[in-house]
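Hypothesis: this fold can be encoded by more than one sequence.
Test: take the structure tokens below, design a sequence, compare later.
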């Protein structure tokens, strides 16, 4: 924890969700970490992306993950998402643990600032290339 913020790490930006204002994460059930109103310091690998707040949590069994939830979270179908989850958490194929599907909203996002700068630079380069024609 940093200043009462819970550390939440992502190894990969599945479905580019961390660039959105709201994003989901599916984690093993842990009511001490994943509760409405909890503030999380979000890391993508070693990069600090900022802080996000959980606005909704749904606790279900892994096998209950449907294609709607899976596709928003990972960009894959339900079966592939469950297989990916089992691999990430070293679960046996028959294990069906409780998971928390959390909907998060950015409170303070550093990644957006970097993305906005990159977008502005790309637009500037595009204008310069067009003008050179």
């Amino acid at each position: 924890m940093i200043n009462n913020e819970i550390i939440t790490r992502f190894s990969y930006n599945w479905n580019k969700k961390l660039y959105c204002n709201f994003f989901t994460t599916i984690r093993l059930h842990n009511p001490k970490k994943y509760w409405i109103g909890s503030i999380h310091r979000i890391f993508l690998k070693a990069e600090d992306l900022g802080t996000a707040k959980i606005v909704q949590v749904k606790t279900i069994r892994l096998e209950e993950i449907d294609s709607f939830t899976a596709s928003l979270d990972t960009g894959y179908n339900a079966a592939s998402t469950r297989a990916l989850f089992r691999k990430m958490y070293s679960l046996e194929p028959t294990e069906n643990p409780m998971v928390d599907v959390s909907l998060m909203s950015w409170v303070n996002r550093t990644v957006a600032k970097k993305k906005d700068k990159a977008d502005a630079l790309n637009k500037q380069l595009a204008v310069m290339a067009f003008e050179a024609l």
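The first strand starts at residue 6 and ends at 10. The chain has a mean pLDDT of 88.
Hypothesis status: open.
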